[in-house]
Design goal:
about 375 residues; about 35% helix; 6-stranded parallel beta sheet; elongated; 3-stranded antiparallel beta sheet; 15 helices; 2 domains; formyl-coa transferase, domain 3
Length: about 375
């Protein structure tokens, strides 16, 4: 493999998933070089209609939602209520390396694609099932519901306000990342042993996994985590503060950094004050320390403080809006499925041998690749 050869090049992924978790996972596989074929119902993935916003093309539009997670794929449209189409789908499964779905439990079996039977007939096939709550739980898995069931919103939002979900769809997106990770692990096992298998990715488990130290604090120390707004329960100062013209965030994780912070804001004596000399004491006296920090930080602009912190090696940054954050983001551009201006999406968050890997294929129009896929995968024009 050369530095620029995608590591999953040559792998065939049959993507039966829809909306967000599965499509996010399969886009990651496409960015790494896999040939991803997206199977859509006659009406298309419902996320094509999620909006506004829609991104206008020359002869049609697509939702921003769909474009965000479907670059790099080929689309075929199949009415799986028809027996001939189900038979054709079985043929495609027969030549795929990976099958991805986020149907409710039992749906694959009703389509004639029982996972147990498939892996018995094709021991090298990797089947990934994304679900809300596990492969035997029929409840639908929707991001908003899963987030609130995970407990994470109870830790999010203002201290005196109600629980608040994350503004990003973290239940879906974490499931997608977990799916991509376990699929690649299963492929590595197949490379070593010849055996594929069934991997399951429950959305709720993915969010419970994110509780990490909060979970251990309750399970093993008996301490229930509390909502802290923009502050941190165990480390201080690690929160946002107002400046003369906006807000900034600090993340001071040890005593050395705290000393640098105090020097930078002109309060060096506080670094040795017994109330603030160690992290546990800073946590215990957070209100008194915050009063000192708030007075000092309000005297200069955000940009001034960010520059000073960077020079001193103090972890801090501006609190930004999404447009501000994206102004400096790495982006990739692809043609619009319906012509017109290029579509920009956020680049994958990785490099291999110094190279950023991202698929060169744009997001597909509904069903546009049927003849091409059947020729490439099956050698016919069915």
């Amino acid at each position: 493999m050369t530095a620029t050869t995608p590591p999953l090049q040559g792998l065939r992924v049959l993507d039966l998933s829809r909306v967000l978790s599965g499509p996010f996972a399969t886009m990651r596989l496409a960015d790494l070089g896999a040939d991803v074929v997206k199977v859509e119902a006659p009406g298309g993935d419902e996320s094509r209609r999620f909006g506004p916003p829609f991104v206008e093309g020359r002869d049609g539009h697509e939702s921003a939602y769909f474009l965000a997670v479907n670059r790099g794929k080929r689309s075929i449209c199949m009415d799986l209520g028809q027996a001939p189409e189900r038979a054709l789908l079985s043929r495609l499964v027969g030549v795929a390396d990976v099958l991805v779905s986020n149907f409710r439990p039992g749906v694959l079996g009703r389509l004639g694609l029982s996972p147990a039977e498939l892996v018995a007939a094709r021991p090298d096939l990797v089947i990934c099932r994304i679900s809300g709550f596990g492969p035997d739980d029929p409840r639908p898995g929707y991001d908003n519901v899963v987030q609130f069931m995970s407990g994470i919103p109870s830790l999010t939002g203002a201290v005196d306000g109600p629980p608040a979900k994350c503004g990003a769809s973290i239940a879906d997106l974490v499931a997608g990342m977990n799916a991509a990770q376990i699929i690649t692990a299963a492929l590595l096992r197949r490379e070593r042993t010849g055996r594929g298998g069934i991997v399951d990715v429950p959305m709720l488990d993915g969010l419970l996994d994110l509780l990490v130290y909060h979970a251990v604090g309750w399970l093993d120390a008996g301490v229930a985590p509390q909502r802290r707004g923009n502050a941190h329960e165990s480390v201080h100062p690690l929160r946002t503060y107002a400046t003369a013209d906006g807000r900034l965030v600090l993340a001071v994780g040890n005593d050395l950094l705290f000393g640098r912070l105090m020097e930078t804001i002109g309060l060096p004596k506080l670094a040795t004050d017994p109330r603030f000399a160690s992290n546990p004491s800073r946590v215990a006296h957070r209100a008194e320390l915050d009063a000192e920090l708030e007075r000092a930080l309000a005297t200069e602009t955000t940009a001034t403080w960010v520059d000073r912190f960077a020079a001193a090696g103090v972890p801090g940054g501006a609190v930004q809006s999404v447009p501000q954050a994206l102004s400096a983001a790495r982006l990739v551009s692809h043609a619009h499925p319906h012509g017109g201006p290029m579509v920009r999406t956020v680049a994958p968050p990785w490099w291999i041998d110094g190279t950023t890997l991202a698929t060169t294929r744009r997001a597909p129009r509904l069903g546009e690749h049927r003849a091409e896929v059947l020729r490439d995968w099956l050698g016919d024009g069915s």
